[in-house]
Specification:
single chain, alpha/beta, Rossmann fold, Alpha-Beta Plaits, 2 domains, six-stranded mixed sheet, 14 strands
Length: 321
């Protein structure tokens, strides 16, 4: 029996002569939290829109919860929940009315709908806001309501597009507690996009990176970080500029950059020349304020594969991509 909740094989999509998604393939096992990452304009949004039936399949095959997206759209739509990045709530409905209306659209009987709404209001901690109009909710409350709405149909797969963007740290943590709870307790498979690398690193079972329409990396967070074989040294001295020049000249470490906390030295392979750095600086009379060795981060992985970082809070510049 196939244990994949999502299977994408040879998927491509073009807008005129522009190839937005170029022959990509990946699988998501049932019950996984899967992060789909990429720079702005990389093809993330187009891919998600293909998976959730908002765009027609031009080339390739997508199967979600056992249903062929091209041939069984209605079945797919009943098997998924979607939370879009842009808020899509009716300002003039209350919290309860929002969920009740959504349940009616999906023809969920009142007998099943009412207890499910009660359950979800408790999950996202909006029980005391049930009679509040959505226009009066804070940004965090609106996002929590949208997650509840996405879960109303008891989806097999939940799609989350930037679920925590623009939210404060405490609210981000609360959102993630809801996501992880339904993932664990209801077995919901989660596919999400995010610009927060720490979230992807800490919460994902698997991470897929797309750039220029192609999959360029796919694996567990740990496997992707280990693939770099590149440690970093954080160094702060009495004269960072002079230290940088000296280390480059004496030890041949070429990748040195500045940060608010001092210098960042990127090392090739598994070398760890901390002793040599300390001796070199001491012999030159340069005081060392602090020096630490750090393993590669997911940010390092992303930069290595794409050549650029993620810009938090910036939406994809092209509506298609």
């Amino acid at each position: 029996m196939d244990d994949n909740a999502v299977s994408v094989q040879g998927l491509s999509h073009s807008y005129g002569k522009t190839r937005a998604v170029d022959n990509i393939s990946f699988d998501i096992k049932s019950g996984q939290i899967f992060s789909f990452l990429g720079p702005n304009g990389a093809g993330k949004t187009t891919t998600i829109n293909l998976l959730i039936t908002l765009l027609p399949i031009q080339e390739g095959k997508v199967v979600i919860a056992g249903y062929d997206v091209a041939k069984e759209k209605n079945e797919v739509r009943k098997a998924i929940g979607v939370v879009f990045q842009d808020q899509r709530l009716d300002r003039d409905l209350t919290v309860w009315e929002t969920l009740d209306f959504h349940g009616r659209l999906y023809e969920i009987s009142k007998k099943d709908r009412t207890p499910r709404i009660e359950e979800l209001l408790c999950l996202v901690e909006l029980d005391d806001k049930r009679n509040e109009y959505t226009k009066n909710l804070s940004g965090g409350m609106k996002r929590r309501l949208e997650i509840a709405r996405g879960l109303l149909v008891k989806p097999k797969v939940l799609f989350l597009d930037e679920p925590t963007i623009g939210l404060d740290t405490q609210t981000r943590k609360r959102i993630w507690s809801y996501i992880k709870r339904v993932n664990k307790e209801e077995g919901v498979t989660v596919l999400l996009t995010t610009h927060y690398m720490d979230e992807a690193d800490q919460n994902s079972d698997n991470i897929c990176i797309i750039d220029k329409g192609k999959i360029i990396a796919n694996g567990t967070p740990e496997a992707l970080k280990k693939s770099l074989l590149q440690d970093r040294i954080q160094l702060h001295t009495g004269d960072d500029q002079k230290s940088s020049q000296l280390i480059k000249k004496t030890l041949g470490i070429k990748e040195i950059s500045s940060s608010p906390d001092g210098l960042i030295l990127r090392l090739e392979g598994n070398s760890s020349p901390i002793n040599e750095i300390v001796d070199t600086l001491r012999n030159a009379g340069i005081p060392i304020v602090g020096i630490t060795l750090a393993k590669p981060t997911l940010d390092d992985v992303f930069i290595q594969y794409t050549g650029r970082g993620l810009n938090v809070g910036i939406q994809e510049s092209n509506g298609h991509m």
